[in-house]
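Recall the central idea of this unit: under ordinary conditions, the amino acid sequence of a chain determines the structure it adopts. In this exercise we apply that idea directly, starting from the sequence alone.
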Amino acid sequence: MFPILTSTIVLVILAGCSGNQVNQTQNQTQISQTTPDTEKLKNFKIGMSTKALSAPYFVAQLKTIQARTEELGMKFTYIDAQDDINKQIASVEDLLAQGINLLIINPLDPKALVQATKSATKAGVPVIVVDSSIDPSADFVTDILSNNLENGELVGEWLVKKTNGGRLKIALLSGAQGNPVGKKRRQGIFRGIIEQQLRSVGKVDFEVVSQGWGNWTYEGGLKVMEDILVAHPDINVLVSEQDAMALGALQAIGEAGKLKDVLIVSGADG
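Accordingly, the structure predicted from this sequence is:
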């Protein structure tokens, strides 16, 4: 994901930062093989507004983008919104005030950041959206996202194969309410479960007995899992929309002595 992201940034800059739309279906091999003109990049400043650094994936994402842009001779600055939408909105204004030439944004909320992207356009600064989706009414050159629906399907299929098509009593550990990424991940997982159960045993047999919101953090996953185990001690599967929360849930399940009873399933954020 990240080499393609940086090459996309380079293509935007070498095009003069005009803000023209980039075809999102452009061949990735062609993008990744583009050789940047580092002389033209020396005075460019990349600003990134990240919604949080509360999970290892977000930290790795930031460090990789920073390392690659600086390797190409560009300047890099970032602001961590710390899971606060007001801070993220303000962070865009702060970055624009610093004279950035390109804005990378990982949106905490798909609608609340729309006006911030329009402010960037007004300032002549193109926007690239990464990792989380944004409302189509926003101004952005391109977005670079995982295929969360398809990834979820693969997780669901794996789960059914792992349990030999047996009955699933599932607790669902979700990220944040209203977040489109989490929604697609769980929709994909359930779709994968249904299709694989139909293929393997000819019927659908699973139940979601609880949904908790872990806010994409280890601590959130730990707390939610503790509560779920009290209310539903007989679950046999935990489905998490992200790995950091799953690791927190793992701790809670271990402390409850149920590591042999509950299969923990996740598949996003490494």
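Residues 2-144 form a domain with the Rossmann fold fold (CATH 3.40.50.2300).
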